[in-house]
Amino acid sequence: MCQPARSLHTGGEQEQQGGVVSFDLVLTTPACPVKDKFKKDCTDLIKQLPWVKDVKLTLSSQHRPAGGGQKVENSQTGLKDVKRIIAVSSAKGGSGSQRIAKLGGKVGIFDADIYGPSLPTMVGVENPRVVRSQTNEERIAPLHYQDVKLMSYGFTAKARGGQASIMRGPMVASTVHQLLAFTDWGELDYLVLDFPPGTGDIQLTICQQVNIDGAVIVTTPQKLSFVDVVRGIEMFDTLNVPIVALVENMSYFDCSCGTRHFPFGEGHSQKISDQYGTPSAVVLPIHSSL
After folding, report:
1. Is residue 72 part of a domain?
2. What is the span of the domain harbouring residue 157?
3. Does 118 lie in the same domain as 167?
4. Cα–Cα distance for residue pair 98/192, rounded to 1 Å
5. Cys bridge to 152: 43, 111, 181, 288, which one at CB 3.0-4.6 A?
6. Domain holding 86: CATH number?
7. SS3 breakdown of the chain: % helix, strand, coil, rounded to 5?
8. First and final CA of the chain: distance in angstroms?
9. If you write DSSP's letter for every residue of 124-168 in order, what string do you get?
């Protein structure tokens, strides 16, 4: 989970002069959802010292390895200019993870679902084709939709031809690696990895090959979804991927009479937050257009 990478007693940089204390608070991830709370708590605690007149605190994060944070040896893959990588996982299908996958800045979306890719249907790109990059023939060019770069197995000729994805684990892992690492993503602020449901080969392959800055967990109010989401949280915790957000999708709808209805009952998102220390859930309503 998100936490300071080191304390003042174990190598944190600090200075004190004339009653003014200056120090750096180094976090494990720049996407820490409670970094403002850390900053406030540290400042308040130091100000309790009688000789302290002012506190100057600078937030930073652990430096990301060169080559886009890749764990694979080949640092010349298409991820080398990607600044931050965010995984979006529902752990159970039908939670609408791609709905919350668009962030500000230069953004790319990678649909990691080989067996049931949904990104082509969601964006509706005209004449989708996977071709070689014009800037590097060893890579493939991402598709574009509203200034967002896209890649999905659903864009390949085999998938567009209606052929089923019949693959065993090693072949799936190889396909995911090729599509992710050899797409010419270029310079991105965020690359969003839209994980398929579950905690299988695809999730393990990506988490073992790429340094992911944070994971967004998407759930629905049903108890069955809660059980599956817990497995997803435990998987990310085991793989040392911090949970930066929890989203409860399709939670309610507002009637024209002014009443808010919860057709699936109250969700278990607060229980997840309390049990695993994740940020409080962002609750999204049901939209008929989606």
Report:
1. no
2. 82-283
3. yes
4. 9
5. 111
6. 3.40.50.300
7. 25, 25, 50
8. 32
9. --SS----B-SS-TTSBPPEEETTEEEEEGGGSHHHHTT------
